[in-house]
Amino acid sequence: MQELNIVHAMGDEILFVDNLRDAKDLPYVRKSYNSIVHCRGGRIVVEMGGSHQVKVVPGQLLLMPAGKLMEPMLVSADTEASALLISDRMLKSVLGNQINIWNKAMYMREIYVVEGNDWLGGIQKYTRTVFKIEKMPLLSREIMVSFLRTMLLMVCEELLRHEDMALNTDTSSIHDKEIFNQFLQLLSSQEQKRQRVAFYADQLHITPKYLSSISKKVSGKNPMRWITESTMQDCYSLLKDTDMSIKEISNKLGFPNSSFFSQYFREQANVTPMEYRVEHKRVVR
Fold first, then answer.
1. Predicted confidence (pLDDT) per residue in 10-34, tens digit
2. Closest CA to 110 of 165, 66, 72, 154
3. Which DSSP symbol is given to 29?
């Protein structure tokens, strides 16, 4: 497996990869992170969520939320790109209430590519300076957090300019959005996501009815739909990227047995788990 030149910053909260040209195993690294990929040359084509093909050209940023299935389709020989990987906890801490913009774009509108515009060159220069400096300054944490917040806010500004962000403007309150974002974060953190709505509502200290109301109001989808989609992302990933048996996957994801798992998967994907694996299996290195 190609070893990635990864710079760890603030433990495992932030990772920086300077050259993705040969990083064919990025999906293994980024599953637990929100990723911002800057394409400086060449062309990148990825499949997001199992069905959404995204093309990235020089001057654009590819945005990938944590937990979202990502399959590289094409990384051209002349590709020059770097990536900043940010944990959910750090993203929430740095963006604060503006996490609403990121979540709406990533999960509801599925906007994965934005234009870098004039500010991107400066950001790229400082990214390398901040995350690759050999001797970190005494105020390294403060410098990193401040830089990260500036960069993420500029990304959010570009997301707000996207025409799809203006569609179906909701009237939900800031409190509603905050609870919904907590629900998404809680859902993302669960290894066994296929739980009843009441499980997540209990963790959030609200009623299932209230969670359903907020989810529908903010996103247009009920929480069970979010739970199912997130569960299927894990199913797809384990079938494609591991050699685990169907029974092992079923157990890992919390299904009562492999027969139930196969029935559940077929209802959602219109194929059996084994049929999906045969068609999409990657070579595990």
1. 677 888 887 776 555 555 557 778 9
2. 165
3. H
